Amino acid sequence: QVQLVESGGGLVQAGGSLGLSCAASGSIFNVMGWYRQAPGKQRELVAAITRGGSTNYADSVKGRFTISRDNAKNTVYLQMNSLKPEDTAVYYCNCKIPLGGTYWGQGTQVTVSS
Fold first, then answer.
1. Contact between 95 and 2 (Cβ < 8 Å)
2. Of 20, 23, 42, 58, which residue is most buried, by most CB within 10 angstroms?
3. Which of 56, 31, 44, 52 is closest to 86 using CA atoms?
4. Interatomic CA distance for residues 35 and 92, integer angstroms
5. What is the pLDDT of residue 83?
6. What values do phi and psi take at 61, rounded to 5?
7. How many CB atoms lie within 10 A of CB 76?
8. Contact at 8 Å (CB) between 68 and 49?
9. Is the pLDDT of residue 15 over 90?
């Protein structure tokens, strides 16, 4: 049974930093990443990382956010720096297994005040 447990998030002022983590269990995940969904908007990819360490970022977060993972712990991290009010959203951990299944975390709120 796959489980994703997210932690981190919260309220921060613009220009500040926050970190998210997602501990996954129950499978081996080839791609782990983060999506976000702001009120009234579609869920969008923030960043993803393969088991081998290749990364992909949304243009809006490049240079500010860093994704990393610890394969031994099956955990993915997202370090968010220079946060902006437009980064406010619910952030979801997303993990994919080699056979094609996709799993989602419960979501964690990130709020950036101006």
1. yes
2. 20
3. 44
4. 5
5. 98
6. -115, -5
7. 29
8. yes
9. yes
